[in-house]
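Please check these two lines:
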Amino acid sequence: MIVASHQADLLPYSGFWYKMAKADLFDLKIFDQFVDRGYQRRVKMRGTWASIPVVGNPKYIPICDVRIDPVESPRALARLIRGRYRGSRHWDEYGPMLEDAVLSIHTDRLWHFNVELILLVRDVLSIRTPLSVSVPTEGRGSVGLVSVLRTYGRPTYLSGNGARAYMGDCREFDEAGIPVVWSAHAPATEDSILSVLMDHDDPMQVVLAEHQTEHQTGHHVEHHVEHHVEREAVTA
């Protein structure tokens, strides 16, 4: 089984969806520490940051505890989407639907707001990989991630390349008997997935685009989307 994992970010870029499409299970890490200048509450749209307001000054707390205004935060995001993408090639196909979906979310939890949007985009992209919400980690960095992966047995872990900085030589994964493969995704843009939806006739072709050279290690990830019959299982 291939497991990928990531924080529940705000409408993340195509690399997030590449990992989801290639995995048998996608784990959402909502117990990681919130990073104010990270991607949980902001993302680039048309090359410029777009962010939603959060309540208070949520430093040094887990993502699951970050709160938003259940009325103003959806309104702010809907305004951003219209302002950045109105007039785009596929605005009529996706724009009003996205605005309505954003405004229909009623929650004061940032992670829940983001997960609702992740489920929406997953369906738009016709990705059927089930989602799960992992338990809190035991330890930090690679040690913590290994503790989460062990709850799924001994899966193969599909990682984004940004994790190389803290995963290093993957010693903790090797000791746990968990093979690691690296994403081969070649992004067309670092923008939110919304830019892919608005600009491309075949968004999944962009999501699944890979570098020409095979630079994965350990195991080869099949170059097709696994269309799982399972529906999502999101638990808090």
